[in-house]
Amino acid sequence: MGRRVGVAAVGIPVGIGVVYLGAWAVACVLALIAAQGTREVYRLAGASGWTPFSWIGIPAAVVLVLAAAWTGSVESWSVVAWWILLGLTLATLAGSVLWRDSGGGPLVAVASTLFGVVYVGATLAFAVHLRSLPQAGGGAVGWEGALLLIFPVVATWSGDSAAYFVGQRWGRRKLRPSVSPGKTVEGGIGGLIGATLGAGLFAVLLLGPGGTGMVLPVLSGAFLGLLIGFVAQVGDLAESLLKREAGVKDSGSLLPGHGGVLDRFDSLLFTIPVTYALLPYFLR
Q1: Which of 106, 125, 163, 211 could bond to 68 as cystine, CB 3.0-4.6 Å?
Q2: Residues 75, 147 within the same domain
Q3: Contact call for residues 48 and 104 (beta carbons, < 8 A)
Q4: What pLDDT is recorded for position 87?
Q5: Which residues contact 213 (CB under 8 A, 6 or more apart)?
């Protein structure tokens, strides 16, 4: 716990500063995170007996994130992303022909390569899209867009923290023991409550009338928090499932007390795209 708090004490202020600086700052930092996260996915695949093409998959994940800032909109980015994924598919198939045979598992190699890019690179790109929403300054330096990106992070991590402490104190019934033996039903309920309260408070304190000009009604914020809390737990269990198959406890060791990038960002890989899809409908 001490190491967790230490990493958070350094990482949170730095992260807020990066988000404040605009879409390109966010994209550059997330590109590095995408590279490490995709590498960890391929490490899990390797532990499961698969051999993805990491030499092309990792750069593709990085380009997907940077392209989100370069294109400036989801519509333009989608065209670029489509060509990247199509080119990656053909390149990995060609690589299978040139350097592997049918005994080298070409199907799972291609599939795992693409999965890592989409699971990490494409999902993190939506953090850049969220920071670049037109109604929040279009990615310029300032708090308008920064608050929109910080919102799902606060809701997600509020839910994660509440789930941990409630599960430690009152957890009895296992939620999905075959996937994550430590998760409990009580912790899951606590996580939903924590995410709802965290998002509601964020809406009141930082996205209320008289603030940046964008208003998120408290009930709308709480409702989004409830959805984020649920999606976050699905994302957490999804990564646990991958680690379970690979037979490892953590996806990596980059962050002391947290594990790897996937261990820290697994929930956000689910909640940020969902927030991007829903939040604009609730903003005034």
Answers
A1: 125
A2: no
A3: no
A4: 96
A5: 144
Residue 92 pLDDT > 70, yes or no? yes
Instruction: Write down the pLDDT at residue 255.
Output: 64
Cα(90)–Cα(96) distance, integer angstroms:
10
Is 196 in contact with 226 (CB distance < 8 Å)?
Answer: yes
Amino acid 77: pLDDT: 97
What is the average pLDDT value for the chain, to the nearest integer? 91
- Residue 176 is given by DSSP the state E
Residue with tokens 């199509």: 86
Contact 70, 106 (CB under 8 A): no
Q: How many residues does the chain have?
A: 284
Q: Is the pLDDT of residue 212 over 70?
A: no
91: domain range?
24-140
- Sign, CA torsion 39/43/45/49: positive
Query: If you write DSSP's letter for every residue of 60-122 in order, what string do you get?
Result: HHHHHHHHHHHH-SHHHHHHHHHHHHHHHHHHHHHHHHHH--GGG-HHHHHHHHHHHIIIIII
Tell whether 154 and 222 lie within a shared domain.
yes
Instruction: Say yes or no: 125 and 28 in one domain.
Output: yes
- Determine how β-strand 174-176 pairs with β-strand 180-184: antiparallel
Domain end (from 121, 140, 159): 140
Quote the percentage of the chain above a pLDDT of 90: 71
Residue 132: CB partners within 8 Å, gap ≥ 6?
Answer: 23, 68, 69, 72, 73, 138, 139, 145
Residue 126 bridge partners (DSSP): none
194 pLDDT above the threshold of 90: yes
Partners of 255 in the β-ladder: 259
Phi, psi of 101 (to 5 degrees): -120, -170
Its pTM surpasses 0.90: yes
> Are both 181 and 228 inside the same structural domain?
yes
